[in-house]
Amino acid sequence: MNFNYFEFVLDNLEAAGAIAGYVSISIIGFAVISFFAKQRNGSILNQLGSKNLHPIFGAFLGAIPGCGATIVIASLYKSNKISFGGLLAAFISTLGEGSFVLLGASEEADVAGNLKAYFIITLFGIIAGIIFGYIFDIIGFKINTQILSKDEKKITNNFSQKSCFSEFFTQKIGFKSILLMSLFLAPGSVMALWGGSIKSIENLTFWVSVIFSVTCMIYYLVNKFSYKNHDCYSEYNNLKSTLLHAASDIAMVVTFVFVGLFISNFIIDIVVGAETFDSWMASSSYALILIAALIGLTPGCGGMISVAVAFIVIPNFPLSALIAASIATSGDGIFPLLGDNKKAGLFVSLIGFVIALIVGYLSLFLGF
Hints:
By secondary structure, the chain is mainly alpha-helical. It has a domain at 157-255. Helix content is 73%, strand content 0%. The protein has helices spanning 5-41, 54-62, 68-78, 84-93, 98-102, 115-138, 150-160, 164-192, 202-225, 239-272, 274-280, 285-297, 302-313, 319-328, 334-340, 342-365. The radius of gyration is 20 Å and the shape is globular.
């Protein structure tokens, strides 16, 4: 078998860039709205409504197609504006980019959608998210977010100022490049939600997506290892600092999206192989629920996309296995959560996997 590694890397870079198009819309949009809300009201609300409603808010926000909502929820949790139950509910109900596969609007899989399956698994996700979200809020479970003190920020700022090139790249070249490419990709990303595209610039969009992914990875590495932390930009006291934070978050998400896609696709396509993967997907329902949940557990959206495609193209694929994968997946929203609070990210993934098995086997018992 002749395998072209260059094309494989290129395809994954393009896929990460395509996903980043609507991820950028969510991150930048939330950042700008928060900034102007703070300017207008003097401060942002301490919480997203009543804490008693957070699991409901989280579950319905997480059910929005794509990963944008979970990225916003992770940001809200970082700033203590939503409870852990609300956070967990969002990650339980999200389908990530797998939602677009079932809606027939995915750029990653050229298959017909299945609206009935989409609505059923979304309903299961919302109900499970609300129930388990309230359970964790009632027992008062919380994992503290890590926020730098003012002294730590000053130390980081003093250190970062020593690197002129890193500062120039982070605050000028890389920053402006990310914003411009996000703006370019935004219309196509919005159209992709309905299965559309801009045919006249498809080739240009492909290469912009690739360059966007590469730029984000360089930006993330420079920001993390040379310029240190974006917390030193300021405390969101002007629009530029707000957008700098947003650019840093976009770069981190895109970097981990690429890593997640590369690893999952490499394992499925190269290590395991298409034939072996298809044989797994034809296992007994009891085994398939466990396999689907494990695949869904992999960081990012690659695993969920694979299971959603399998459900559509493989005859008699049990809906209960798709439900398990959908609950186990955390989508791309897990990456900013892991970046800000590894303990919370790992716990959300682990408890989501356990809940996925519970709901998956329960749905099989109910005849799904």
